[in-house]
Known about the structure:
In chain A, helix 4 packs across helix 11, helix 12 crosses helix 13 (about 270-290) and helix 13 packs antiparallel against helix 14 (about 295-320). In chain A, about 50% of the residues are buried. Chain A has a two-stranded antiparallel sheet. Chain A has one domain. Chain A has 14 helices and 2 strands. Chain A is mainly α. Chain B is α/β, with parallel strands linked by helices and about 240 residues long. In chain B, the strands form 3 sheets. Chain B has a 6-stranded mixed β-sheet, with helices on both faces. A 4-stranded antiparallel β-sheet of chain B has the order 2-1-4-5, covered by helices on one side. Chain B folds into 2 domains: about 1-80 and about 165-180 and about 200-245, Rossmann fold (3-Layer(aba) Sandwich), CATH 3.40.50; about 90-165, no CATH class. Bound molecules: adenosine-5'-triphosphate (ATP) and magnesium ion.
Amino acid sequence: MKRMLKIYMEKPELAALLLLLLLVVLFQLRSGGVFLSFDNLRGFFGILPEMALVAIGVTVLMICGEFDLSVGAVFALMPMTMAVLMATGVSFPMALVAGLLVCVAIGLLNGYLTIRFAIPSFITTLGMMFVARSLTVVISGGFPPLLPTDLPTWLFTSFVGPGQLLRMSFLWFLAIAVLVSLLLSRTNFGNWIRATGGFLPAADALGIPTARVKIACFILCSVLSGFAGLIQVLRLGSPLPSIGEGMELQAVAAAVIGGTALNGGVGAVFGGIIGVILIRVIDNGLILSQVDANWFKFAIGSLTIFAVVANSWLRKRAKSIKVEV
Amino acid sequence: MNGPIVSVRNLHKWYSGVHALKGVSVDFARNEAVGLIGDNGAGKSTLINILSGVQKQDEGSIFVEGKEAAISSPRDSMRLGIETIYQYNSMVPTMSIARNLFIGREPIKYSLFGFGVLDLRKMREESVQAIADVDLHLRSPDALVGELSGGQRQGVAIARAMHFKSKVMILDEPTNHLSVKETNKVIGFVRSLKEQNVTGIFISHNMHHVFESCDRVVAMARGQIVLDKRVSETSIDEVQSVL
Ligand SMILES: Nc1ncnc2c1ncn2[C@@H]1O[C@H](COP(=O)(O)OP(=O)(O)OP(=O)(O)O)[C@@H](O)[C@H]1O
Ligand SMILES: [Mg+2]
């Protein structure tokens, strides 16, 4: 029994999950039942995958011991690159490949610069955030190009499932979440990610190629962000250069709320997703409860601080429950 | 085969101006426990780091079982059967015992280009066995290493080295910051290496520990070996006088 309790207290995403349930009940009551209505859920699940995909990448990278503040800018740059290419007649698949290659290049550069010059990734990717955002605006030429009308939008945004509740993007998100989650918990590469972020000198001494592991995580993070940006642009129907602003910090907040440690080694993809859902629920719930929308950032901010404090408290408590090891 | 398991010849290492190793040559025999002693900065860790692939020598060669060995990464060293245990660097505290045992050498079920699905069951079973083999009593391989005491951690590190059938185990100040009781445990591990047919290289600042647990003592000072004798043929006083 004690043992079970300890295991649960050590799972930081659990606290977030409890809070989520609480908020859902609260908002459901406050909104007079609108919150869990079909239409609201449909809107909710339609937007969720975009931020969740970003948070998945950020969570993995944080577990590996690094940050990426350029995700919001990459979120805008990737679909803008595609739109500009398609405006000159390049086909969708070719533009998709080019867009993803841009993401790979940015992730590679983020990782390479961080490791080669031993600078905090916080700084490298802060710089990259400005660079990528600027590039997005510059290549758009001021006016966002029109998207061609014959895009396979259905593959990403059309409604599917029971009662057309979900968009295709949700299925992409589910598949990617499961894959990345398994990668982290069930593969040797996932073990290396945790070791690298958990204690770098030990991982090095055990012969883990830590530089390459980190660079791979930077690339994963960039690619997922760019892909998420593409989904949003296809949903909105137009590539705006300003999308994804502020997303980098929300993604970090989501990861932290879901129990990811700021100094690496600890965390789970599932936790990051719970974090995103919490943030979206608060956003959506506040609006439905007709609270002034400006309270949104206040709520996310307090939640982040609360989550970190609660997690460290829980972990300490769990440690003090003595079960024999 | 009766030659030395590891020999180094004329090893030199410079760190931007500091001549840390000045032509070190030494042999380590099979199943021998060797104590490596020396003042701070004598070059012990440098020698060990070269053997374990963390650093590369500037000059000189290493022979493992008579064959010249190019060791340029920890992996090369581990592949040659050399396992190194440090006070701090050998475990990831945020990971479980079972996972720690297999970092970098995970048993894989299906693999593609060296990446694959972990055989979690095998990891659990083998870690339970490995821990029992070194007489360490830990109930669950799922406990986080961060929750173990310093001595238990060293025990797990030694269990790992044993599990991977290492032939040479290097312990760089494994008893630093450990209590007397925990230190005795680690000393016990060092002593038991012999029975398991493993060569031990044990770095310590504590002469008593070395004399208690080793067959031979090698003393270094200022990047050179200044004494190399069997424990039975020397004394703490003699070793101290050359340092
Ligand atoms: N990474 C490094 N960069 C520069 N100089 C170094 C480095 N590592 C060791 N040195 C220098 O090399 C010399 C030998 O150091 P080493 O760490 O091998 O000594 P040691 O015998 O292990 O000492 P201690 O007992 O304090 O651990 C010292 O003068 C040290 O300052
Ligand atoms: Mg040393």
